[in-house]
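Treating backbone geometry as a discrete language has practical consequences that deserve illustration. The amino acid sequence and the backbone structure tokens for this protein are reproduced below.
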Amino acid sequence: MICTGNICRSPMAEAALAHLVAQDDVLRGRVDVSSAGTANWHVGRPMDPRARRALDRAGIDRVARPGAYADRSYLGAQDLVVVMTREHRDDVRRRLTSQATEVIMLRNLMSPGLDLDVADPYYGDDQEFDECLDLLRECCRRLTSVFRQRLDAGSYEA
């Protein structure tokens, strides 16, 4: 999961997806979820407290990893990179070293081909963080369906 600073959208998406994966017998132990930012401003720092509170209100107790930077090495080690915006997609594609790494926009899972961005709640209040998390959770539910389809098709990796 990739956003800009790796303190709001991508760690919430990481926690939401990891929560879903942990509950799924097909995906548990086969799908590893992480997040990073296209900027290195918050490396090593925890997610924004408002993001953590939104996860708590939603009953998601998974702890996202400390902020990380989506450099070439990080991106090259991923099978799938899920981005929040068109800008993230373009930035990630410029940094990719592996042609095998797939890049998708998260909202395309709900609105295929429209390339809609996930709005950044950073300058918002708790309600905006909750709304962002609701969107992320719905997209993550669809992503788990994609993973299940790929794994059921004989693939051992998602």
